[in-house]
Design goal:
Number of helices of chain A: 8
Helix content of chain A: 25-40%
Strand order of the largest sheet of chain A: 4-2-5-10
Shape of chain A: globular
CATH architecture of chain B: Alpha-Beta Barrel
Distance between the termini of chain B: 29 Å
Number of domains of chain B: 1
Number of helices of chain B: 6
Strand content of chain B: 25-35%
Radius of gyration of chain A: 19 Å
Largest sheet of chain A: 4 strands, mixed
CATH topology of the largest domain in chain A: 60s Ribosomal Protein L30, Chain: A
CATH architecture of the largest domain in chain A: 2-Layer Sandwich
Structural class of chain B: alpha/beta
Largest interface: A-B, 52 and 48 residues
Number of domains of chain A: 2
CATH class of the largest domain in chain A: Alpha Beta
CATH class of chain B: Alpha Beta
Number of strands of chain A: 10
Radius of gyration of chain B: 16 Å
Shape of chain B: globular
Strand order of the largest sheet of chain B: 2-3-4-5-7
Oligomer: heterodimer
Bound molecules: iron/sulfur cluster
Order of helices and strands of chain B: EHEHEHEHEHEEH
Number of strands of chain B: 7
Order of helices and strands of chain A: EHHHEEHEEHEHEHHEEE
Structural class of chain A: alpha/beta
CATH topology of chain B: fumarase
Chain lengths: 283, 188
């Protein structure tokens, strides 16, 4: 029998603390490079101006160690928990929330979580949204994703009829982007989840956003083709950077898919603003 | 790029009337910050006829809630939040003298109508460039609702804050015009 490997809650807390602090100030190289390229394809002067400011902002945030955006997000955490890991020194989920709490306090990040009805702030940006998957091995992979409210608010899920097919899926995604207009801080990344159930499609859509920017879906050529087609059509809508008009409404479309019920065709669209923040670590 | 127009707060009818959707401006002077809960509180106080914690006459509200400042700084990262959530409250605030709004995203027909009626301007600030935007802020003090934590209203002094006119007093809308201009007909 394989021996279990012990990982302490303290290590988990510290890893999550660091990841959320880093994610909020350091935009990934993949995002920066796609943004840099996009300036060249933008026709509108105002659009170019916006894209240049976005690149400049990323430089300032990193140099001064300050958040890229004032909305430092709802703390979404994806965990791949190796089945040979034994968590010691406390409760695993408590450790995740504690890591978030520490990051938002030590990192001078904005606390943006509240009671849905009274709208009273919880004061420490918890609870985090935690997705756990059990995998093989004796390690834990943690991905920290601070998700802004502006782009999340423009996201949605639809239970299409199977007869809608590829065309129906396309139409739903493009209409979502058009309806969102300037609200999700374009240029956006369009995360799409097809299949599963109502909640699974939304989780897939969010997971799709974690894929390095510029990478196509590699598991299914139907999807990589769909990603390309949708991106082209979305960038003909004219919305442009910040909705000020232009070509670059979106930087990429990332689609993930899984089987669904014979009666259903769930499609979720999770919009991600240009401040596409996520950092991961394996412990 | 088009001419850049320098303007100062408090905004007047004359200044507002001269601005057109699509203009780039550099705004200087004092602005208030306020977002969801602060708006609801102001709105409810107006309906009750209570005295407001701030006088809205001639004011400009920036829909923003900055991150907490690091030690040795007076402001964290700051930028606009999506404006439509304030739509329910904005016409009432304009009736009370509000002259400028800074945010991002489309407004409701009721807000656009009130913008015309009360000669107000709705400006757009770039969303997601909050480390850069903080550089235009020269001073920050709490103005009202300190108990709201991150959502408290602040009085900021800004210098040459770059903004784009989104909705003007003539009823024009940059978002509508710009998207039409750059839209490529799918049948082309
Ligand atoms: S949508 Fe993104 S860029 Fe825009 S304010 Fe929210 S977190 Fe920032």
């Amino acid at each position: 029998m394989k021996a279990v490997r012990e990982i302490s809650c303290e290590t988990i807390i510290e890893t999550i603390r660091k990841l959320f602090m880093e994610a909020n100030i350091d935009l990934g190289e993949d995002v920066l490079s796609v943004l840099g390229e996009s300036v060249k394809s933008e026709d509108s002067e105002l659009g170019q101006y916006v894209l240049e400011r976005i690149v400049e902002n990323a430089r300032i945030a990193k140099e001064e160690s300050v958040p890229l955006c004032q909305d430092t997000g709802l703390a979404v955490v994806f965990i791949e928990l190796g089945q040979d890991v034994h968590v010691i020194g406390g409760n695993f989920c408590d450790a995740v929330h504690e890591g978030v709490r520490k990051a938002y306090s030590d990192g001078f990040l904005r606390k943006s979580v509240c009671d849905p009805l009274s709208r009273e702030n919880t004061g420490d940006n918890t609870p985090a949204i935690v997705h756990i998957e059990v995998v093989e091995g004796d390690r834990i992979k943690i991905t920290a994703m601070p998700k802004g409210g502006g782009s999340e608010n423009m996201s949605s899920c639809a239970m299409l009829v199977p007869s809608a097919g590829l065309e129906g899926i396309k139409k739903y995604i493009i209409e979502s982007v058009e309806k969102a207009g300037p609200n999700p801080c374009p240029p956006t990344i369009i995360g799409v989840g097809i299949g599963g159930s109502i909640e699974q499609s939304s989780i897939l859509a969010k997971k799709a956003l974690l894929r390095p920017l510029g990478e196509k879906n590699r598991s299914d050529s139907r999807l990589s083709k769909l990603e390309e087609e949708i991106l082209e059509e979305v960038n003909r809508l004219g919305i442009g950077p910040q909705g000020y008009g232009g070509r670059i409404t979106s930087l990429a479309v990332h689609i993930e898919m899984m089987p669904c019920h014979i009666a259903s065709l769930p499609v979720a669209v999770n919009l991600q603003c240009h401040v596409a923040r996520h950092k991961e670590a394996i412990i | 790029m088009k001419n850049i127009i320098r303007i100062n707060t408090p905004l007047t009818d004359k200044v507002c009337d001269e601005l057109n959707a699509g203009d780039m401006v550099l705004l200087s002077g004092e602005v208030l910050t306020g977002r969801d809960v602060a708006h609801r509180k102001l709105f409810e106080a107006i309906l009750r006829g209570d005295k407001l914690p701030i006088n809205l006459e001639g004011e400009t509200i920036f829909y923003a809630a900055p991150t907490p400042p690091r030690p040795g700084r007076f402001i964290g990262s700051v930028g606009p939040t999506t404006s439509y959530r304030m739509d329910k409250y904005s016409p009432k605030l304009m009736e009370m003298g509000l002259k400028g709004m800074i945010g991002k995203g489309k407004r409701s027909p009721e807000v656009i109508d009130a913008i015309k009626r009360f000669k107000v301007v709705y400006f757009g600030a770039i969303g997601g460039v909050a480390a850069l935007t903080a550089r235009y802020v020269k001073k920050s003090v709490v103005a009202a609702y300190d108990d709201l934590g991150p959502e408290a209203m602040l009085r900021l002094e800004v210098l040459d804050f770059p903004l784009v006119v989104l909705n003007d007093t003539k009823g024009r809308d940059l978002y509508e015009d710009a998207a039409k201009k750059y839209m490529i007909n799918l049948s082309e």
